[in-house]
Amino acid sequence: xxxxxxxxxxxxxxxxxKELLTSNTASTLCISSRSESVWTSASRSKWDIYHKPxxxxxxxxxxxxxxxxxxxxxxxxxxNKNVYKMCGPAFLxxxxxxxxxxxxxxxxxxxxxxxxxKSKFLQSLKSFFxxx
Length: 132
Hints:
Helix content: over 70%
Shape: rod-shaped
Strand content: under 5%
Largest sheet: none
Radius of gyration: 29 Å
Order of helices and strands: HHHH
Structural class: mainly alpha
């Protein structure tokens, strides 16, 4: 191990400067990065990948069915008919919007996963050929 040079007045370096010299830049970057998937190689379960779109689809289907019930109540009941006629289509449209957004989100995630797999494969090929 190398002995650090002493300062002109004979005192040693401060502990803070030693700490700065021994810090590992790569680990600092790893800790401060936003995306953990770049640094970790652990595979995620399907639920971890698809839980958000599944929840959006489920909520959208529930709201859509609620809109169907409210709209059908406007045909059956005579009391508060105007309220049912206003709220029913609003719930129908909101539920349909959430349902479609969730159903479109799933293929987007699948495409993203395939691109990540291709990217990892190409990076491994690149490192194999260029790190010789």
